[in-house]
């Protein structure tokens, strides 16, 4: 199983995903600022994975304050939480994990600081282990929706690199293939940062799952000519009504799938559901630097003075979604995630 984040002798490491697939490099995260930088520059990414990363980043950030008094320790906890929470605004898993960690610490505020820190470390490990189990359950539920012979289109990266386990949407696909289904995957390149071309194609290569890489603007052609049986993607935040924010380009795929009568599925752990948001209109969309569009890995591909925008996500309305698959099963309209 691919591990984007792991502990070794109480030291925290991540795989730098900005270098894949050309280089596989593990880097040590020594403090919360290292983790904040890694999340911001997408060295670690994917909604479930950055939730796990935020919890772990809080732990390593607080390690320097184990010998402080509880007042200072809890003040630093608030400070570090705020820094990590500000890194990426759309994926709710990040704030969900930090709230959970903060609640644990506050419940132990009268305990010795080393005990609080150790409990936080154990909670971070628990969040990671829970995500592994959720990925396995999502795969079990989701593979039942895939025909014995299927062409599936996916977008961005939703495998082991994006989670604590085997993945969400890609976990479903890989599990179905490993269980004997005749699967072929069409992988959107996913501009502007090519997470599909760089990461999903790499994971499918590692798992020996047959796939074809396509540019994003080939999706309509592929749906009309290649007998696509399903589109399965992940999510970064799901509103109470089922509206779903995911990597930019997902909304367009859902519209195309609807036109071509192809079922469009979302796969995500329940930690991605935000019951405090009633619809997708309330989801904050992360705006990244326009240079991500003007450049392609350091090479200028547009005139220097080109105006460019880079929204990291878009929102797919619930009416375009055939089902949302979580570890609890498949949900459909009207959505009731309880």
Task: Report what the structure shows.
Helix 2 runs parallel beside helix 4 and helix 2 packs antiparallel against helix 5. This protein starts with a strand and ends in a 7-residue tail after the last strand. The protein is 39% helix and 20% strand. By secondary structure, it is an alpha/beta fold. It has a 7-stranded mixed β-sheet. The mean pLDDT is 96. It folds into 2 domains: 132 residues, Four Helix Bundle (Hemerythrin (Met), subunit A) (Up-down Bundle), CATH 1.20.120.420; 191 residues, 3-Layer(aba) Sandwich (Rossmann fold).
Please supply descriptive tags for the structure shown above.
single chain, 338 residues, alpha/beta, Four Helix Bundle (Hemerythrin (Met), subunit A), Rossmann fold, 2 domains, 7-stranded mixed beta sheet, 4-stranded mixed beta sheet, 10 helices, 18 strands
Task: Summarize the helices and strands and which ones pair or pack.
Elements: E1 5-8, E2 11-15, E3 26-29, H1 32-40, H2 47-62, H3 70-85, H4 92-107, H5 113-143, E4 149-154, H6 169-178, E5 182-188, H7 195-207, E6 211-214, H8 219-225, E7 230-233, E8 237-239, E9 244-247, H9 250-259, E10 264-267, E11 273-274, E12 287-288, H10 291-294, E13 295-296, E14 299-300, E15 310-311, E16 313-316, E17 323-326, E18 329-331
Parallel strand pairs: 4-5, 4-7, 5-6, 7-10, 8-11, 10-17
Antiparallel strand pairs: 1-2, 2-3, 8-9, 9-16, 12-15, 13-14, 17-18
């Amino acid at each position: 199983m691919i591990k984007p984040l792991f502990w070794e002798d109480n030291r925290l490491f991540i795989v730098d995903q900005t270098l894949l697939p050309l280089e596989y490099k593990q880097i040590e995260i020594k403090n919360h600022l290292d983790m904040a930088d890694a999340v911001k520059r997408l060295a670690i990414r994917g909604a479930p994975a950055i939730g796990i990363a935020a919890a772990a980043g809080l732990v390593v950030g607080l390690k320097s304050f184990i010998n402080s008094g509880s007042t200072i320790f809890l003040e630093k906890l608030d400070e570090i939480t705020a820094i990590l929470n500000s890194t990426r605004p759309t994926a709710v898993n990040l704030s969900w994990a930090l709230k959970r960690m903060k609640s644990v610490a506050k419940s132990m505020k009268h305990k010795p600081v080393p005990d609080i820190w150790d409990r936080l470390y154990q909670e971070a490990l628990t969040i990671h282990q829970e995500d592994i189990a959720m990925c396995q359950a999502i795969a079990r539920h989701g593979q039942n929706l895939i025909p014995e012979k299927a062409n599936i289109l996916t977008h961005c990266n939703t495998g082991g690199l994006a989670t604590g386990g085997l993945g969400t949407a890609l976990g479903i696909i890989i599990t179905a293939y490993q269980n004997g289904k005749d699967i072929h995957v069409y992988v959107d390149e996913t501009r502007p940062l090519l997470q599909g071309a760089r990461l999903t194609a790499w994971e499918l290569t590692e798992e020996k799952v047959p796939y074809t890489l396509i540019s994003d603007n080939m999706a309509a052609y592929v749906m009309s000519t290649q007998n696509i049986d399903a589109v399965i993607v992940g999510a970064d935040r799901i509103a109470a009504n089922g509206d779903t924010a995911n990597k930019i380009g997902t909304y367009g795929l859902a519209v195309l799938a609807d036109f071509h009568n192809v079922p469009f599925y979302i796969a995500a752990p329940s930690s991605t559901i935000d019951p405090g948001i009633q619809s997708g209109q309330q989801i904050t969309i992360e705006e990244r630097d326009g240079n991500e569009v003007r450049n392609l890995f350091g090479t200028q591909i547009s005139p220097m003075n080109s105006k460019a925008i880079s929204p990291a996500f878009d929102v797919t309305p619930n009416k375009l979604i055939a089902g949302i698959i979580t570890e609890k099963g498949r949900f459909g309209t009207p959505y009731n995630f309880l």
